[in-house]
Amino acid sequence: MMTNEAQTGYSGMETGSLAQRSAILAKWLWILFWLVVPAEIAEIMKNQNIQSVAPGIYLTGGVMDAACSIAYGAILLRLSPLEDRYRIAGICSLIIAGTGILLFILFGTKEAPAWSMIITLPALIVKVVGSYHEISAHSSVLIGVDYELSEKWDALWKWYVRCMACFIGSILLMLIVPVLGAILLLPAFVGILIVSIVKLVYLYRTAKVFRRLSTEVVAANG
Known about the structure:
Number of helices: 8
Helix content: over 70%
Shape: globular
Low-confidence stretches: 1-15
Radius of gyration: 20 Å
Mean pLDDT: 83
Number of strands: 0
Strand content: under 5%
Number of domains: 1
């Protein structure tokens, strides 16, 4: 439910500024939401099982994944004037894209050797940092507009950290005790999948909030 403050202004800003801010967030968050779809398809195409059976599809998935990461990062940077944490999230997304491109230059469609973890593990850490700032930014822009959804974004971050910590830990454990690491990897993967789906739902709801707010402010001034 939208607060009276959100209907009349955003943290003391004039209604015109609120309308402009809401319109920008509504536009780019909506694009972010739809950008997740091809990104998820690319992740499926990059599956290691596909790599050995259909290297062409695997290569296409890698190109799509890099393109989506670049576009995602560019949009987050576009939103940075409204919330500075979007800037760090955008930079991290571009670093992830660069890492993917580097791995393809080094290994192409071949299976990456074990030493490539010196590249992939830091990339995972960058991904966690970027996700933190993106989720924090989504939560921040909702303050004064939809507190309930803002708090849900904060809670999602805590679950994301737990799942990623388990995922990274299981990968490291596989180097020491492969069987135990593989066992822990499955629940971590399922947890990350669930968090990703919830994030997509929250992103959709956040974009809808600002689309509605933008429409209501314009109508109130009309």
